[in-house]
Each structure stands twice: as C-alpha cells, then as structure tokens.
Amino acid sequence: MEIEKIIQELQYKAVRSSGAGGQNVNKVSSKVVLNFDLNASKALSEEEKELILFKLSSRLTSENILILNCDEDRSQIKNKAIVTKRFLEIIKNALIVPKIRKATRIPKSVIRKRIKDKKNISEVKNNRKKPNLD
Fold it and tell me: Could you tell me what percentage of the chain is helix, strand and coil, using 3-state DSSP and rounding each to the nearest 5?
C-alpha cells in the first residue's frame, strides 16, 4: 500500500455542515466529504482490493465507493485532515490479515481438574439439602 498514491486518488467535497452554529453554519462550507473509488484505485493491488472489499463490504456503496464525512471542527482544513487520517486508519485495519489459528489439544490434567471441580461443587450443593431422616 502506497499512502501517497492513495491520498492523491481521494476526492474531497466541502459541504455546509448541519446542526448548531448560527450564521457560521449557514455561510461556511466546513463539512468535508471524502470519496474513495476502490475499483478505480491504482495504488492498491488486486489482492488488497479484494481484502478491503471483503472487510469493508458494509461501509461501501454498491459501486464500491467508500464515503466518509467529517464536521467535527469549524475549520474545513482541520476537517479534511481528520477525515484523511480516519480513512488511512480504516484502510490499514482492513489490510491486516489475521493469523490462522492453530488447533491445540486440551491437556489431560486440565480436563481432570475441571471434572474434579465439578464433582466438588456438586457435593457442596448436595450437602446443602435437608438430611433424609429415614
């Protein structure tokens, strides 16, 4: 993954932010919308694209476009930096390949200990009952 190439492929759009803020919200386009077209990306290999498509399938549109918004700050520049950082974090996490789990046997001593503990608890519960006086 080449970060510089990916950043060049990002498309930003400034939009008016919603919510509280008075006149500033009505006049200034401080919200930033980031679009990343996964299919058109030349910075990612085919294997990386498939991995991202699998892991981020719920976040992608039907055209495989990742859309992120940021309106945390009143500054457009800061929002752009925040959304870019968030995008890179999402992509890095999506490209992590999990280790394959090796199946291991449970040691016999652990099995014996569990069964012994179960019998002990069962005995304690039986001792709580009223004695049978017959």
Answer: 45, 15, 40
* Domains of the chain from N-terminus onward: 3-94 (3.30.160.20)
Q: DSSP string covering 8-48, please? A: HH-EEEEEPPPSS-THHHHH---EEEEEEETTT-SSS-HHH
Q: Tell me the pTM.
A: 0.70
pLDDT in tens, 77-104: 999 999 999 999 999 999 998 899 999 9
User: Could you count the other beta carbons within 10 Å of the beta carbon of residue 6?
Assistant: 18
- What backbone phi and psi angles, to 5 degrees, belong to 72? -70, -35
* Token code pair at residue 94: 């999506």
Cβ atoms 1, 93 nearer than 8 A: no
pLDDT of residue 26: 73
